Amino acid sequence: METRKELYRGKAKTVYATDDPLRLVMHYRDDVSAFDGVKLARLDGKGETNNRINAWVMERLTEAGIRSHFIRMLNERESLVRAMKMVPVECVVRNVCAGSMAKRYGIEEGRRLPEPLFEFFLKSDALHDPLVNDDHIRILGWASAADIARMRELSYRVNDVLKPMFAGAGIDLVDYKLEFGHPLDEPGGDLVLGDEFTPDGCRLWDAKTGEKLDKDRFRRDLGEVIEHYREVARRLGVPL
Ligand code: UDP
């Protein structure tokens, strides 16, 4: 697979074209960012760790019947994915109240929710990813009613698979963010999971001690960020 020109440089990953217009390469860099790109750093080994964790999680989701753009790892920092037309919203599922939800509603972090709670955010750093509802998405034309329903359904299904999987590794899956799209080689087809699932985009707390094992270590200057990402991988059995 020949990697061609850079198509898009995000805050932690770069996407490259390949000789096949239906396939892209996702390159996981060592960059980390928080607060819509205001806080930036480079963490040695993050790209490789996240690429491996993502590959492992996507494979588990595929086994559970949840389709994603992930095809296979190409090397320690890169994975081959299906090219997609992405829906410009972020889907968040929360099992425990934390982060922006705790702040928005004045609720203490750590309150366990009686059932998983779903939220949509518009993907826009410039606007600080505002919370949006189904009507905003449908009426403003970001996604159809069918895709909105499907994103919610698939996001909950991911929780059904991953929450017990993390629990088995002694990790509480507090919340996570997903992005969906339509693969270019399946016009009019079903939505599939895109982007990544790594400790950059979810909250993972040690089930016994509550210790944070995710990007909050960077956001909140708790230190040893990669060491904790690797601990997540080790507990899950992800080969590093
Ligand atoms: N999240 C993300 N990208 C974003 C916003 C949130 O990956 O642009 C993840 C975040 O890591 C957390 C979950 O989505 O696991 C919920 O994030 P929240 O809304 O609490 O926002 P935060 O306080 O993390 O900015």
Task: Describe it.
The protein has 240 residues and is of the alpha+beta class. It is built from 6 helices and 15 strands. The protein has helices spanning 46-63, 99-105, 134-139, 145-168, 216-219, 225-236, and strands spanning 3-9, 13-18, 23-28, 31-34, 39-42, 70-75, 78-82, 84-86, 89-96, 112-122, 131-132, 171-178, 180-183, 192-193, 202-206. A 5-stranded antiparallel sheet has the order 1-2-3-7-6. The chain has a 5-stranded antiparallel sheet with strand order 11-10-9-12-15. The chain has a 3-stranded antiparallel sheet with strand order 8-13-14, with no helix packed on it. β4 and β5 (39-42) form a beta hairpin. α1 packs parallel to α6. The longest helix is centred in the middle third of the chain and has 24 residues, at 145-168. It is globular, with a radius of gyration of 17 Å. Residues 90, 92, 98-101, 129, 175-177, 201-203, 215 line the site of uridine-5'-diphosphate.
Number of helices: 6
Low-confidence stretches: none
Please tell me how large the radius of gyration is: 17 Å
**Number of E-type strands:** 15
End-to-end gap: 23 Å
Question: What portion of the residues fall into strands of 2 or more residues?
Answer: 25-35%
Oligomer: single chain
Supply the helix-strand structural class: alpha+beta
Q: Can you write the helix and strand succession as a string?
A: EEEEEHEEEEHEEHHEEEEHH
Q: How many strands, which pairing sense, and closed or not: the largest β-sheet?
A: 5 strands, antiparallel
Can you list the ligands bound to this structure?
A: uridine-5'-diphosphate
Approximately how much helix is present in the residues? 25-40%
Overall body shape: globular
